[in-house]
Protein: Phosphatidylinositide phosphatase SAC1-A
Amino acid sequence: DAIDLFLGNFAVDESDGPTPLRVKKDWKFLTLPIVMLVAFSMCIVSLLLAGDTWTETLAYVMFWGSASAITATIILFNGQDFVDAPKLVHKEKMD
Structure:
């Protein structure tokens, strides 16, 4: 969208009303990346700060590793929803 504005492919008209760039996002677009960041960070912390026994450390690493893997899978599965397509100029798709 910024490139289209810069190149002049889209002209801003103040009488059009609200901006077409503002789109309401679902809760998952903010929550899932934060959950993945926290889970991955806790997995690294679990590796660096070992527990009393190796089984305790392994349990923490497996739990946080699986939490970050599941969250990453959900984000990748819904990848098209997380990436914004240009909204200002709609060009025809060439086959």
